Amino acid sequence: MSLKTELHTHVGSLRRYALVLTRDPVAADDLVQETLLKAIAKSDTFQPGSNLRPWLFRILHNTHVSELRRAKTRTDAAPDLPDPVARDCQHTQLELKQVLGALDQLPEAQRMPIILIALREMSYAEAARCLDVPLGTFMSRLGRGREALRRIVQGVGAGKLTILKRKEGDA
After folding, report:
1. Largest CA distance in the chain
2. What is the mean pLDDT of the segment spanning 87-97?
3. 20: exposed, middle or buried (C-beta count within 10 Å: 0-12, 13-18, 19+)?
4. Closest CA to 2 of 36, 54, 38, 52
5. Which of 2, 42, 98, 106 has the fewest Cβ atoms surrounding its Cβ within 10 A?
6. What is the model's pLDDT at position 152?
7. pTM for the structure as a whole
8. Quick check: 14 pLDDT over 70?
9. Which pairs count as long-range contacts for 45-50, CB under 8 Å and 24+ apart, including other chains?
10. What CA–CA distances, in Å, run from 152 to 11, 21, 120, 155?
C-alpha cells in the first residue's frame, strides 16, 4: 500500500484526535491539514514497514504543541469550553465539561497520555511512540495524570496540583 493511500485511512482518526485537542472543528481541520502537509513533505523520513499511525499522531501532536506555544506568546487567554447545546443531556454535558476542565488543569505531559489511551484507544506502546518517550516514562505520566485527574474531579487535589506541575517539569 502506498503512503498516499495509507494516509487516507488515518484521516478520520487524526480528525477525531484533533477535535479532542482543539475542541473546535475548524481548528481541528486546520491541524489535520497541517499534519498531512508535513507528513507528505517529510515522507522520506518515514521508515517503510513501520506503523504509520503513531508517526502521523506524533506529527499532529507536535504540530498542536507548537501552535499552543505560538498562541501563548501572543496571548495568555485560554479558550472557553462550549456551553451545552441540548437541554435533555445537560447533566452529561456538565460532567463532560468538568472532566475537560480538569484535563486542562493537568500538565501537558500528563494530559496527553490520558487522551491517547482513553479517547484514542491506542495501546500503551503506540501512545508512547506518538509522544516519543520511553514506555516506562509514558506509564509513569499516565499513572500520575490519572491520579491527578481523579483528585481534581473529586475536588480534592486543587492544592496538590501545583506540586504535581512542579514535579512534572522535572520529568
Report:
1. 52
2. 65
3. middle
4. 52
5. 2
6. 86
7. 0.51
8. yes
9. 46/3
10. 33, 19, 22, 5
Which amino acid is present at 27? A
Number of neighbours of residue 122 by Cβ within 10 angstroms: 21
Place of cell 481523579: 150
CATH topology of domain 87-171: Arc Repressor Mutant, subunit A (1.10.10)
Mean pLDDT, range 123-152, rounded to an integer: 90
Domain boundaries, the chain: 1-79, 87-171
Cβ neighbours, 10 Å, residue 10: 20
CB 52 within 8 A of CB 36: no
pLDDT confidence band for 24 (50 / 70 / 90): confident
pLDDT (0 to 100) of residue 144: 93
CA 14 to chain CA mean position, Å = 11
> Which residues, 6+ apart, have CB-to-CB distance to 123 below 8 Å?
none
| DSSP secondary structure of 138-168 | HHHHHHHHHHHHHHHHHT--TTTHHHHHHHH
Position 160 pLDDT exceeds 70: no
